[in-house]
Amino acid sequence: MKPPVAKFLTSVASPDGFPPEGPPEFAFLGRSNVGKSSLINSLLGQKLAHVSSTPGRTRTINFIGIYSKPTQPHPELLLVDLPGYGYAKISREVAAEWAKFIDPYLKERKTLRLAIVLIDANVPAQPPDQQLIAFLRHAKRDFLVVATKADKLSGNKLRAALAGLARDHGIPSVLPYSARTGAGRAELWRVIRARKDEVEQAFMPA
Prior knowledge:
Shape: globular
Radius of gyration: 17 Å
Helix content: 25-40%
Distance between the termini: 33 Å
Largest sheet: 7 strands, mixed
Number of strands: 7
Number of helices: 5
Structural class: alpha/beta
């Protein structure tokens, strides 16, 4: 699968900095150290999301534009990298600051088409993830749960882990993904592009 043309657009720390609403947006959320930046870089085929060895380092919302060709003036969709959550060493004050611009983005952003919730395939369901899914349901946001680091399990162990996570999160299924091997990359792009196409069809004249 050929990597898309991707460009880093902007990094914001308050709702005032959000770019104008335009193409459909796909937001990535997950606990600190779940492998969010690695997954985004795997999707893009290049290192646009910063991978840090220190959990909780990302404290901004980062917007990445996806283009069908390098000369295209405007992106056809945006990938949005949100700060990680649930890392104990991050102060409550910082977490409270995040809520001032993360919550408005998730609740009010009209162009947000899908929230992609990342969980670790090797870890049982965690309360912060369950709370996020409950938040998204309350906000009436569509979401997809993706299990990262799936290459660390195989066969029956992976299937059992995915089934257990789906059950404990109250969802039909979980999409396994490995940033190391690329497994799940094509499937996740299919979901994203299908949602993008749905948006375009909705605005086509009858």
